[in-house]
Design brief:
The protein is of the alpha/beta class. It has two domains: 142 residues, Glycogen Phosphorylase B (Rossmann fold); 168 residues, Glycogen Phosphorylase B (Rossmann fold, 3-Layer(aba) Sandwich), CATH 3.40.50. 32% of the residues lie in helices and 16% in strands. The chain contains twelve helices and ten strands. The strands form two sheets. A five-stranded parallel sheet has the order 3-2-1-4-5. A five-stranded parallel sheet has the order 7-6-8-9-10, sandwiched between helices. Strand 2, helix 2 and strand 3 form a beta-alpha-beta unit. The chain is elongated and about 65 Å long.
Amino acid sequence: MDLLVYSGLELIGDGVMKLPFLGALRQRWPAARITWLAGKGKTVYAHALAPLAAPLIDEIIEEAGIGSRADELLRRPLPERRFDLVIDTQRRVLTTLILRRIRSRCFVSGAARFLLSDKRPKRGYERPLRLIDQLLDLIAIAGGERVEPRFDLALGAPWSEAAALALPPGPVYIGIAPGAGGAQKRWPLARFVALAQAQQERGRTAVLLLGPDERGWEEELRTALPEALLPLQDRRIAAEIAASPLFTMALGRRLAVAVANDSGAGHLLAASGVAMISLFGPSAAAKFAPAARRLTLIEAQRFGGSEMSAIPLAAVSEAVEVSLAPTPPLSPVPPAAAP
């Protein structure tokens, strides 16, 4: 089976959010030859996230110049190719009309409420808010069954070994990622510090994940939390490994639980499969919440405001304790009474 997936382009944030979709594609069609078409630019699946994408995508076409201009309707995209299935992950109608000219047995697209799609959802379908759920629905519509996100993506030895060096076995590691793309999306740094201190008092090890934009906090945090670990700033780790998003994912797999704002680091940690606590203020959690194996959402609106400062420390601390608690086994179903 030849399968084509169209996406305009992927920057790092987009690519991380779509990782569960890639895994679900391969899970649904394990023997398919999957081609990823970035029609309007580059994709991180060919660069920063290539080691993760390689087992899931057979071919990547970047900067194809497909899907932007009306005059593309006068010619056939990828004229030498034919596919069994084309999945269009965007909803711009002009782009969808262009993509329909690619030779295929089946074309699936959510544009114009699936009007241009060969397969459609059942009557009454409502598109979910989260991007990842929208993408997973495309797989269900095209393949006839729902596939759940995967969190067992293969990480290479360089990143896994570096994570083991930075976070060796033994301690219970609590991941804390205090950064975010905008100040309005950040829980107050002092509360992250208080959370880390409380965890350390319980005998756990705080792991502070500081990206490039948070390097200015390093001295302050090392002073306030001298026992905490900062693996992204660990001088034993080669710079090129520490800078890779795959290293953050590898670190996530060594954490017992992670706490993050609505941020790229939060999506990376969620993709690692760690139990995730995501803090949301002005941004919509229903739309931007990460896909995670086990997710706890804490929204400022629950506490009477939209600012991140409305989220109390006690609520986050309680969520950590709940996430650390072992999942109770399922109770056996009692046998039916004899008639």
